[in-house]
Amino acid sequence: MRLQEMLRVLTAAAVGLAVIGCQESPMESTGGGVPLASTREVNLLCPMTGSVVAPSVPTRSFEGRTVGFACVMCPGRWDQLSSDAKRARLAAALADQKSMVINTRCPITGNPVNVQAAMRAYMGNIVGFCDPTCGETWDRLPDDQKQARLGAAMKK
Ligand SMILES: [Zn+2]
To answer: Ligand 1 centroid vs 7 CA: distance in angstroms?
Structure first.
């Protein structure tokens, strides 16, 4: 099984309760060298759908933070919410994302993942790291290296 297929299966298993209502493919390539939206956004799960945020979807600014979304319909639906509802949905998305990390070993060092340290959205999944610097290292890796490192980390 190829890594992408494996990740897709794992995502399907891990998402479980999340609503996947968008047509956008989570496997959409971000292109080599293009920074992932997750380096800018505060949330890795969409506050509207619970799916992993997609880098191609427009973001929104809310109370000094950048909010990411999973599909193109979501920012418009977000705009309709009251500030209280936005705050609640964003808090719920932030609370849930820690439980959706797919790896137990850091893809950079091989050490155990610490979800407090760093997480990134990657191809419809959430990847955890052992240290904030590993997340920054990850951001600079080309896509093929990310896949290779994540695949190796998940075999440990
Ligand atoms: Zn690490």
So the answer is: 20
CB atoms under 10 Å from CB of 9, counted, come to 11
CB 131 within 8 A of CB 109: yes
Show Cβ contacts of residue 22 under 8 Å, excluding neighbours closer than 6 positions. Answer: 49, 51, 70, 71, 72, 73, 74
CA–centroid distance, residue 152 to ligand 1 (Å):
13
| Beta bridge pairs of residue 119 | 128
Burial 68-102 (b: 16+ CB within 10 A, else e): bbbbebbbeebeebeeeebeebbeebeebbeebbb
Confidence class of residue 144 from pLDDT cuts 50, 70 and 90? very high
Question: What does the pLDDT look like over 9-58, one tens digit per residue?
Answer: 554 444 433 444 454 444 443 433 334 444 467 899 999 999 999 989 99
What DSSP state is assigned to residue 110? -
pTM for the model stands at 0.70
Answer positive or negative: Cα dihedral of 108, 40, 142, 30. positive
Distance 129 CA to ligand 1 centre (A): 5
